[in-house]
Specification:
Length: about 400
């Protein structure tokens, strides 16, 4: 038996035609954010209609509010929760409380895990509030940071009302656009840029602050004055003793002028969400954030910022950028305000910059947090800052030695 296999009929295949090139689509849009920072006293007094009036003017589709209160504030103002409830009853057309206010720990501990963020997100879910409703955070900067992060991530963004209760929060963090918690041993590693809907600075809350918390908000004003406003620094310098004695009128002026600088910078500098490598308003902060971690947050943020300001001012002087009289004025003002300008952690492992407990690790973490190249703000005069992208460790060691002697 014979089998014959026929050869296949071969056809000439056409040449492959080049594929059409699809042009990339480019998206380009901007989103406008507007929010007001109000200054008042006795915000939740039923005779003060400010909060209700402002909420009514916004005319959103929801009046629902979930309130988060700093435990330290609740302890210092034991009638606060009942005052909030009475205020909501009095102005029920503007405010509807959806649940009992949630009391959360005050201070940096509230940012050390996601526990409290999840509790607020759970409350948003349980109360079925919508994106047009509000989370109202009442407390210090740490509580505002944490609650703002929770609000920004629930429903991809529930409206946030901030009621800062410390000097530091009223003149700096409470009027800004950053929210976050700490993670992996780094400050504010997890977070979101999300502007508040409203901010209410109630000066009456400042009366209950302990001396350390009263004082610790002042360095943020010193910082912004040193890099932006020589006249403002002169005011702080001449008012330093009065501020240390807890003079309220001097503090009101300081809070207002500092908050104004921060608001104008965020809106006018051109980089509110920090897409670049520059963060001018963080003068002195690379060392401050590191010192907070190295002291296990025994240092208040403002106390650490005071040391960071002193360090970078001294470095500026040693580098020949800042004259000796200006340098001495800065250190003297900080000391008159009641700040220590040296802690032992500043000198740890100075000859080993990569050691986990070296202050110099703060430089790499600062660059990493911002992205891009290292950018540090220094001073060439009081009221005039400038940026550098490299530093000399030996000169910083000399600066630390000078602060240790001061």
């Amino acid at each position: 038996m014979t089998f014959t296999i026929a050869a296949p009929h071969l056809k000439t295949q056409p040449k492959t035609q080049p594929k059409t090139q699809l042009k990339p689509l480019q998206q380009d849009f901007s989103v406008r954010f507007t929010y007001d920072v109000h200054f008042t006293q006795r915000l939740f007094d039923t005779d003060n209609p400010l909060l209700a009036d402002v909420l009514t003017q916004i005319k959103t589709s929801s009046t629902q509010v979930f309130v988060v209160v700093d435990s330290g504030v609740a302890q210092a103002h034991p009638q606060l929760v009942s005052q909030i409830k009475a205020y909501a009853r009095r102005y029920s057309e503007a405010i509807t409380l959806v649940a009992e206010p949630l009391i959360v720990p005050g201070g940096e501990i509230v940012k050390q895990s996601a526990e409290w963020v999840e509790k607020i997100q759970d409350a948003v879910n349980r109360t079925a509030i919508c994106r047009h409703s509000y989370v109202m955070a009442i407390g210090g900067g740490a509580v505002l940071d944490m609650a703002g992060y929770a609000a920004a991530t629930a429903h991809r963004g529930v409206r946030l009302i901030r009621v800062p209760t410390t000097v530091l929060a009223q003149n700096d963090s409470g009027v800004g656009v950053k929210n976050g918690i700490n993670a992996f041993g780094k400050k504010n590693f997890l977070g979101a840029f999300a502007p508040p809907t409203l901010v209410f600075n109630d000066f009456d809350f400042l009366k209950a602050l302990g001396d350390r918390d009263w004082r610790s908000g002042i360095p943020e004003a010193v910082k912004v004055a040193l890099i932006k406003d020589a006249d403002f620094f002169s005011f702080i310098e001449t008012s330093a003793s009065a501020l240390d004695r807890r003079n309220m009128e001097a503090m009101k002026e300081l809070v207002y002028r500092c908050a104004k600088h921060h608001v104008e910078h965020i809106g006018g500098y051109g980089d509110p969400f920090e897409k670049g490598s520059s963060r001018p308003l963080d003068f002195g902060h690379w060392a401050a954030h590191r010192l907070e971690h190295l002291t296990d947050y025994a240092l208040r943020h403002g106390e650490a910022v005071a040391i960071g300001i002193a360090l970078d001012s001294t470095y500026s002087y040693l580098q020949g950028h800042l004259d000796i009289d200006s340098w001495q004025r800065i250190l003297s003002t900080l000391q008159t305000l009641g700040f220590e300008l040296y802690v032992p952690e500043l000198s740890s492992y100075l000859n080993h910059p990569s050691h986990p407990d070296s202050i110099f690790r703060g430089l790499s973490e600062f660059r990493e947090h911002l992205g891009g190249e290292l950018t540090i703000m220094l001073l060439k005069a009081i009221g005039v800052g400038f940026e550098v992208h490299a530093v000399d460790f030996d000169v910083y060691r000399q600066a630390i030695a000078l602060l240790q002697e001061s």
